[in-house]
Structure formats: C-alpha cells, structure tokens
C-alpha cells in the first residue's frame, strides 16, 4: 500500500509510521490513522514539514508529538552546555 513516500509506511491496519533523523537519532513515530493513499500522502507532507523544521532549527518535539514518552528527544542537545547537575541527594 506504500505509495512511494520516503520515510512513511503503513504500520498496521490502523496506523502509519513516519521516520526521520533528529539530533543524530533515528526517530519513528506512529500516527493513528488508517493507511489509505490519502492518509499516507498527508503523513508524507507532515514528515516533510518536520524535516524542514529540523533543518531550520525550530523543530519542537513536544508540539509535534505531545504524547511521546521519550523525553530525552525533547531536550535539544547542546555540546557546549555544561552538564545538568544531579537533583539526587547523594548523602
């Protein structure tokens, strides 16, 4: 059923997966819509918008995928930033 859209594929009878690279990590997100030709095209357009936002540097993972559990992808990587101090009490 894949209509030839890069990074987009039917995942099940009721969902579509889109894949992209963000902060050097391969990300795959599932969209809960039936994988019809029209929905695959919409998913490809959404992926294109995500790739454009990543290229511009203004991609907001929280806004795009608010229910996503992997919070490590939500914090931009900044190699020049100092390490985040631990909040645990080591004593």
Structural commentary:
The protein contains two helices and three strands, in the order βββαα. By secondary structure, it is an alpha+beta fold. It has a domain at 8-63. The chain has a three-stranded antiparallel sheet with strand order 1-2-3, covered by helices on one side. A hairpin with a 2-residue loop joins strand 1 (8-12) and strand 2 (15-22).
Structural class: alpha+beta
Number of DSSP helical runs:
2
Largest sheet: 3 strands, antiparallel
Regions with pLDDT < 50 over 5+ consecutive residues? 81-91
Broad shape: globular
Distance between the termini: 58 Å
- Name the beta content range: 15-25%
Quickly list its features.
91 residues, alpha+beta, 3-stranded antiparallel beta sheet, 2 helices, 22% strand, disordered C terminus
List the helices and strands and how they pair.
Blueprint: E1 8-12, E2 15-22, E3 25-31, H1 37-56, H2 61-64
Give me a quick take on this structure.
The chain has 91 residues and is α+β, with helices and mostly antiparallel strands. It has a domain of 56 residues. Helices cover 26% and strands 22% of the residues.
